[in-house]
């Protein structure tokens, strides 16, 4: 089962310990074959909205920070519970904030 984990930016300043812990976490997940891809995302981007055959494109950055996704990880695990445990471990490392976990369907 594949899951996409996204995280929103936080106001918490990163310290050296966070980078060390995150590097070890990423190395462990990569070595075990769980982590398929990870990355940060630009704060802007483009939003496309369609209604009645009309497509509207809006340039970011968007006014509300809650709309922004700062980064992602694509993982392959055996169950939803395992995906949630990976996400919990991530949140414990990075501290306060918000992440979303969604199952990815398809090949």
UniProtKB/TrEMBL annotation:
SUPFAM superfamilies found in the cross-reference section: Dimeric alpha+beta barrel
* YCII-related domain ranges (all copies): 1-90
According to the UniProt entry, the coiled-coil residues are none
User: Cross-referenced Gene3D superfamilies, in alphabetical order?
Assistant: Dimeric alpha+beta barrel (3.30.70.1060)
Q: Could you name the domain of life of the organism this protein comes from?
A: Bacteria
* Family that this chain belongs to: Belongs to the YciI family.
This chain belongs to the protein called YciI family protein
Organism equals Nocardiopsis tropica
